[in-house]
Amino acid sequence: MSEIRREKFAIQINAELLAQLRSLARSEARPLQVLLDEAVADLIAKHKNANPRPHAMAAYLASHETYGPLYKKLAE
Question: What are the domain boundaries of the chain?
Answer without folding.
Answer: 15-75
